[in-house]
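ok so I'm stuck.
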Amino acid sequence: MDKTRTMLKKAWKFILLFALILLSFSYAMFQGGFVSWFLFYSFLPFAIYCLALSVYSLHDLEVVRELPKTDYNAGESLKVLVTIKRKKAFPLFYLFIEDHIQDSLKYARQDRGAKALLFPGMKKVFSYEYRIEELPRGEHFFESVTLKVGDPLGLFEKEKIYSGKDRIVVYPAFAEIFYQPLENQYDQGLTASRERVQRDTTMAVGVRDYQPGDRFSWINWKATAKRNEIMTKEFEQRQSHDVFVAMDCVPDKNFEHIVSFTASLLRAILKKGAQSGLLTVSSERTSFPIWGGDQHLQQLFYHLAKIEAKSVLPLDKVIETDGLFVQQTVSAMLVTGQLTKPLIEKASFLVQRKGRITIFLVKGKKEPAATEELSLISIANARGVRVIIVHEGDFSAAFSGVNIR
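replied:
not stuck anymore, here's the structure
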């Protein structure tokens, strides 16, 4: 049906064009004189161009989209260059170009925009460049490029869509944070910390009597021979600073700041040499085991680049129902934008089992804490839960002690 309609529309344009040529010629023949023939010969080039354009094929055009790179951080700018090449130098009166980008990028601030009207003339190679300022976090796709040409009379227009998919990943913006393990010290004094203890088997500090469970490689043969009793090496014990982070994914005005702080926190922990895991519950549950290294950090950042605030469960329900979080024996850090009484109660319950719970309350720039939140922070401190307020643009103060309440 659409194909038939297109053919009829094209045929009607041909009929209209020949009718205009015939009318102008008839007017010149019957009227005579310089003016009538001048009008006819002035119209004739436009008519010939229309006929030539009607047989011109847009398949001759090659469209290439060039992106400087595929990985960005939120807030950076992206320069896109669209180049059109063709083999034949046919005069084009105008060329309308539109780069189809994902909706998530359409609302970002653009310099010149992804649409343009060009006048290439006889050029075989021409290009158009536009810039997207302040890229939003996420995984964004460039779908296709539409080219449209036409004649001055507006009778014949040709349009072709060139497929050319590209993808960029915009990771969350992060700040440099100097991470240091938090001690469980509150107004009422020091609390016990149930940190996991590990042995550093590279440094023996003494010997002791053998105990069931000691490894065969730990036996000190010289001391065993001297005392005629099995003696094992005594290693230096160190505390593990591994951290498991849970991020709140309920809709919140500060959600982008929450993601940014979580990325900064995870990066600081891993760069310190510790290990970290992550739990998020958005449209689906995603959990990353406690691990370390640059590859693990890359996986965490890629997940945070795509995460959306689509959770229907508040953070207290997430940590209550998620068995993996409860089973973790390392330090736990919760990142949220909403401090509630159920969250404090659940966190104080976990303190009895895990030993350390820290809640980071993320706020906007210079956004003060509400009276109710200050009251909840006092309750949390009394129950052994540390609450730290962090503000947008001041994430580096998270471990400085300035924002600890």
